[in-house]
Amino acid sequence: MVLLFSTDPDGICHIETSGLDGESNLKQKQVVRRYAEQDSEVDPEKFSSRIECESPNNDLNRFRGFLEHSNKERVGLSKENLLLRGCTIRNTEAVMGIVVYAGHETKAMLNNSGPRYKRSKLERRANTDVLWCVLLLVVMCLTGALGHGIWLSRYENIPFFNIPEPDGHSLSPVLAGFYMFWTMIILLQVLIPISLYVSIEIVKLGQIYFIQSDVDFYNEKMGSTVQCRALNITEDLGQIQYLFSDKTGTLTENKMVFRRCSVAGFDYCHEENAKRLESYQEAASEDEDSADTPSGSLSNMVKPRALSCRTVHSRPLGSISSNHLTGSCFALESREGASEVPHSRQAAFSSPIETDVVPDTRLLDKFSQITPLLFTPTDETIPDPPLETLYIIDFFIALAICNTVVVSAPNQPRQKVGLSSLRGIPIKSLEEIKNLFQRLSVRRSSSPSLASGKEPSGVPNAFVSRLSLFNRMKPASPVEEEISQTSESLQGSDDSACPTEIEKQNSDAGIANGKVEALPGQPLTSSLCYEAESPDEAALVYAARAYQCTLQSRTPEQVVVDFAALGPLTFQLLHILPFDSVRKRMSVVVRHPLSNQVVVYTKGADSAIMELLSVASPDGPGLEKQQMMIREKTQKHLDDYAKRGLRTLCIAKRVMSDTEYAEWLRNHFLAETSIDNREELLLESAMRLENKLTLLGATGIEDRLQEGVPEAIEALHKAGIKIWMLTGDKQETAVNIAYACKLLEPNDKLFVLNTESKNACEMLMDTILKELQKNPASPEQASLSASLHQPPPTLQGSGLRAALIITGKTLEFALQESLQKQFLELTARCQAVVCCRATPLQKSEVVKLVRSHLRVMTLAIGDGANDVSMIQVADIGIGISGQEGMQAVMASDFAVSQFRHLSKLLLVHGHWCYTRLSNMILYFFYKNVAYVNLLFWYQFFCGFSGTSMTDYWVLIFFNLLFTSAPPVIYGVLEKDVSAETLMQLPELYRSGQRSEAYLPLTFWITLLDAFYQSLVCFFVPYYTYQGSDIDIFTFGNPLNTAALFVILLHLVIESKSLTWIHMLVIAGSILCYFCFALAFGAMCVTCNPPSNPYWIMQEHMADPVFYLVCVLTTCVALLPRFIYRVLQGSLFPSPILRAKHLDRLPAEERIEALKKWRGTGQMDQLTSKYADHSAVESERIPIYDPSAVFAVMSATACAVEKGNLPVCETALDSDFSETKASGMAGPSKD
Amino acid sequence: MKRKCQDYESRLPDNTAVKQQQLPAFRLQLTASEILSGFFAIGLFCLGMGIILLLSAKSIKEVEINYTEKCATCAKLREEATNFDKECNCSISFYLPQKMEGNVYLYYKLYGFYQNLYRYILSRSNIQLVGADVKDVRNCAPFRTSDNGLPIAPCGAIANSMFNDTIVLWYNFNSSTHIRVPMVRTETAWWTDKYVKFQNPAFQNLSSAFAGTAKPPNWPKPVYELDEKDPGNNGFINDDFIVWMRTAAFPNFKKLYRRLHRIGNFTEGLPAGSYSFIINYNFPVSRFQGQKAVVLSTLTWSGGSSLFLALAYLVTGAVTLLASFSMMALHLKLKERKTFFLQ
Fold first, then answer.
1. Chain A residues near residue B117 by CB distance under 8 angstroms
2. A990: which of A437, A462, A503, A720 fits an S-S bond (Cβ 3.0–4.6 Å)?
3. Does the beta-carbon distance from B316 to A1115 stay under 8 Å?
4. In this prediction, what percent of chain A has a pLDDT beyond 70?
5. Which of B130, B320, B341 sits opposite A1141 (nearest CB)?
6. Catalytic hit among A10, A21, A129, A246
């Protein structure tokens, strides 16, 4: 629906799209330009414009079209004007619009392509074997048909045998054989395990039930546990070979903590902040013991409240007022008791750890120099204030306003300053605008401090709100001075951390008191919540607030920042160029209220910003030099930050003259209104704006690793899973995080693939491949040669582990068809691959490539919308229910709350599910073949006439009742190795990767065993009763009974653990069989011809021969398998069996044995290390240091690598002289 | 506590043994000694059982005389269906070297007669046989009604093909004295068959009970004339008929025909000596290359004379013992290396 009218005076409509993409934050949509200015409601009947838009498509984030008014004036339409079906309108009374897509053409419907049906590898395997069973059935039926034909031809004319049809004709042998084929199919159809599929589904349900009820997956903080969204691929969890992980929010917490910043070339370490973080961690751990213990941490006092809010957060918040919210929080808390849930004190987002920033003392000192005096002279003749101070001011203003944070005050209805479009004054000259603004800013700056204690929300007073602004969108359109103020009640808060703010601010203020003058009357104003699209932004805004530079409110037209020494500043927001992944930066264009200049504040990735810095400063060579210095220093700081694994952002600004701005605006307007290639034009326009920037500084935000990530990655590595990290972050950050989470080991050999052209990429890959081939024991070969008898980790045993770092640009080349093979070969030899600067599309392409070309099981894990495509493509997609919305979870098959849960999910549940299900499937095949063959053998003795020696009901119930529950229980509860051992010995996972439990050979061995058992089961009674006076169904009875025992005891032999449930079910099955046989035998006098089980069971129960036959049959049938199992256990135990043996040792011995097990692994590692001694001489590994050496070399230089270089960093084709170094850097500490 | 959980941690799974898959598992992982002793036990049990069975099977005396060849003339006569009304008797004499003690049973045995064909066994009417409705012949195709449209009683292919030789055993006390060995023709069928599954229609007069029905085409006389001397053995509850109706599992089978009536000379069983069978040859077997035999046999607790079960037990026992010995050797050898696991 194209939005034409909104009751909001700004023409804005707030929507929530949780129904579409799961994001619950508010989004703004804009009324179509020109309609926004109309006061009156749009009268649908008078709507005469024409809308032309693109044909329906499924891209939620794109909409192009235009609206042509009757006067041929065209207005472009964008996604900002489109309300999608499925979203909820919030905070807006009413909207009006015109529907452009309806029914199945809506984007919501087009996106709903239905879930991709994933079928597990095991099931595909089983399906082929079902086909084999079909083939077997056909062969058996053909045998029957042929046999019957031949048999009948011998007795064709004997009415005893060839019983004529009712009409007196007797069948010809050929026709009888043909009929017999179908009779046999009906008789033997049990061979096709149709019940297998039902059982598989039941087993999977059971498995999922157990996965979901595992307490280890419970996340106390979020009150969530694992969610299994796909019901049919649990067993794939046990066969994963490649893991693709996102970094942010997956490996890391995605709790952005402001750590450091560098302003004007000075690094501010924020040591107190670091200390606070540490103490916070300690406090958190202390709190686990006792919630009441005050831990001296600043944020501690806040935490209980944060906790209580968190608990409510999980409920639908909707329109609960915040007071109510707090009330219920308290109620809950008091009921819970303090020690009940100590963990939950860490809030999910906007937790104290994020929002509290302790200012750096040095920086605060500098802040104290800031006085309003710096700006008091309203004309431009101010004496130059110290440049650094200006930089600091600008820096923090940029932090505070260069974002899309939504401010909301939770405690009272938000006062919204609506500045509707101004009309009436045709602004022909920019001069006028300037005048207007100067006037305003004079009044502004001369006004006293605005906030009063009684105006708690920090809303600018009426005077401010009556500011007249010209419409930022339409310099050419008539502007009219009109002021309106609308209060809009923004009910409740979507951010439950809000109630904590007051206290936090208090604590902040308490700290800051000694150093800066805390502003009186301000504390209440800080009860603000920031809702940001990304946590980075929020972190920066919170950081700015720590320096008393508080973002007070934000409307589409203006931003109010409460700057400590300067008082509230109202920035007129001229433009926002939102963040996109191509530009990797965002900008805001504001009119500075003090200097009254148009200022562009840009925030973005360092690489993006650094390129755009102005080379020549307009202010003179002195400044230029200073700029250069700042730039160099900042770069150094940035490198330093990156080395510490911080996310870096650069802040820059540009002061534009009004004429420049006007010109840009004109172009930009053109770009915005164009319909074709609008995106390109907008990008171009942004590029025009964002250049000649002046660097202000940089920030370092820490994205803390999640708890237990290194351990999990280590375990998964040991389990033989290759882990790829696909991230959009820059190389240095990515590599450092990779080291931190043990994805890369210190003595890994790193290959960096960073080229600017395809050829270079090819050459470099060639070189690296050769390099790797020289190394005789490459990991891949080692893992291939790993045999059953060497359970110790084989990968570590090989001399060198290689790791590949590849950048997004190079990845693009590598993914091209011609290089795919080489790339895969290369990655196959690397233990870990880190793809940095990868776009979401690249992520999914990488997964697709690996999945389809290497034919391996892949798992993708991610938390954000950018991982969705990757999650959908992989065999198993796991979403982390974190902070970046729910899209990843929506798209995923399983959702966990933390990365570390992955290790248990895969190593324990994956292994269990896989072994259980594969064993159950094999058992099912065995069971059916073994039982059906009994019927088949009998055909040889009844002229292939399709007689069954079993009563039909017994035949049906045998599969349905007597032998159905035990395999299901087996499939759900079987536990070959205990969870602890599986976690302690991740190597055991490899058996699943190699599908050891269900190889084609296993299937045929199982069938063979089934044949053997059925032969025994048939021929022991046959020879026993041969030539006797036994009748058909009396003969069938011991057969059935023996088969039941054989089949059930076979399960007992196969299962590795028997619980009382197993026992109960097996005993129940046997009991059920006998009860049924006895009852049926007692009641069925004339029923069910021709078979008549009357009194047969009772007769047999009194016959010793019956028991003797059953015992003998069972023994003979099961002996081979039992002996095989025993011999396997003693002569060639699989690692699984050995691990199982560990389980039953007493605790102490077990620890010893585990040590021994690992010890043998290390021994192997040592020996192999000595083997390729030359390759590993140096064990000391330098810390990866990208800035250490940048030697410019050619690609081939890599081959000249001297002997033992643990770090081989290669980069190619330096396009940018300073940073893009190419060639190969030697180790810095060797 | 519980309420709190519901309020606050409703999503926290219960920490119970079942849900956490921590159920105590029975150690099926047996130790070496357990397994070995188990194996030895099984082996010894099988051996012992085999020996017992062998002994009991040896104690059974059995005489089987195949009279297909010996009554070749009769067989030839019966090949022609037109000769159905011609009588043909055949005498077979044999010598019993040892006396047969205890109960002696007389069987007839058929070779190559498929009584287990699917359409054959279908062709009967249990409702008719239980006496509920004499005219219920629904399942009896193709022998449902006679040519004149009367329902056949007993109907169906099984009844129609009933074995109708009469076998009489004579004891040749000496060359001149021939004593007919007394035989009981009842209690050869299962008790439940005779008293539950097979019932004559409830009429005073048996022949009137079967009024309106026809005899099976192959039968010389109607069903109510099977044993006119003993009303308890006539009609559907005739033991020979019931035994025949219990269709044999294999093409070679024997069926119980008579029991020795232990009176006079035969209170101990059958004494050693010379005997002869006088067989009224009616049942044609040569048409389907079948054979007929008479069997005299005693019975023990373990059933018939089959040696198979005994031998199978012996072999199984031997193999199991062998396996357990070799496993013990293995165990002892591996024990030195301390890497012995079983199961």
1. 161, 163, 942-943, 945, 947
2. A720
3. yes
4. 65
5. B341
6. A246
> Given this model, what pLDDT does residue A1176 score?
33
Taking residues A937-944, what's their average pLDDT?
Answer: 92
* pLDDT at A577 exceeding the cut of 70: yes
Check if the beta carbon of residue A1060 is closer than 8 Å to that of residue B97.
no
Residue A619 catalytic?
Answer: no
Tokens of A1230: 């060797």
Helix (H, G, I), strand (E, B) or coil at B93: strand
Which of A215, A218, A1129 lies nearest to residue B342, judging by beta carbons?
A: A1129
Q: A1034: which chain B residues are within 8 Å (Cβ-Cβ)?
A: 249
Q: What is the mean predicted confidence (pLDDT) over A273-290?
A: 49
Q: Which of A148, A314, A1050, A1112 to mutate to test the interface with B (most CBs of B within 10 A)?
A: A1112
Is residue A1202 pLDDT above 60, yes or no? Answer: no
Peptide bond into B154 cis (omega under 30): yes
Pair of tokens at residue A458: 């920090």
How confident is the model over A931-947, as a mean pLDDT?
92
* CB atoms near residue A1162 (< 10 Å): 13
pLDDT of residue A309: 36
State how far the Cα of A92 lies from the Cα of A488, in Å rounded to an integer: 9
Please give the full DSSP string across B7-42, using - where no structure is assigned. HH-TTSPP--TTTTT-PPPB--S--HHHHHHHHHHH
Token match 């931003």: residue?
A559
Question: Is the separation of the CB atoms in A638 and A650 below 8 Å?
Answer: yes
Task: Spell A1053-1082 as b/e; 16+ CB within 10 A means b.
Answer: ebbbbbbeebeebbeebbebbeebbbebbe
A341 to B301: CB separation less than 8 angstroms, yes or no: no
pLDDT of A1146 above 70: yes
- Computed over every residue of chain A, the mean pLDDT equals 70
The verdict on residue B200 lying in a domain is: yes
Query: CA nearest B49 in A: which residue?
Result: A1108
When CB atoms are compared, the residue of A165, A1036, A1059 closest to B24 is: A1059
Identify the residue among A980, A1115, A1125, A1160 best suited for mutation to test binding to B, counting B beta carbons within 10 A and taking the highest. A1115
Which spans in A730-835 are helix H?
731-740, 758-774, 779-785, 794-797, 808-814, 817-828
A832 contacts A725 by C-beta, under 8 angstroms = yes
Task: Over range A288-309, report the average pLDDT.
Answer: 37
Q: What is the pLDDT of residues A1013-1033, one digit of tens each?
A: 999 999 999 999 988 888 999
Q: Which residue has the higher pLDDT, B53 or A730?
A: B53
B118 domain-assigned: yes
Asked if the structure places residue B24 within a domain, the reply is no
Indicate the number of domains in chain B: 1
Backbone angles phi, psi at A299, to 5 degrees: -80, -5
CB pair distance less than 8 Å for B117 and A335? no
Q: Rounded distance, CA A1049 to CA A602, Å?
A: 73
List of chain A residues whose C-beta atoms are within 8 Å of the C-beta of residue B130? 1085-1086
What's A425's DSSP letter?
B
Residues of A in contact with B32 (CB under 8 A): 1130
**Residue from A182, A225, A1029 to probe the interface with B (highest B Cβ count within 10 Å):** A1029
Predicted complex ipTM? 0.93
Rg (CA), chain B: 30
Are B28 and A1058 within 8 A, CB to CB?
yes
pLDDT category of residue A518 using cuts at 50, 70 and 90 = very low
- Residue B96's domain spans which residues? 61-301
pLDDT on residue A1188: 34
Secondary structure class of A1115 (helix, strand, coil):
helix
Task: Examine residue B188 and state whether it is found in any structural domain, yes or no.
Answer: yes
CB contact under 8 A, B197 and A1030: no
- State yes or no: pLDDT of A798 exceeds 70: no
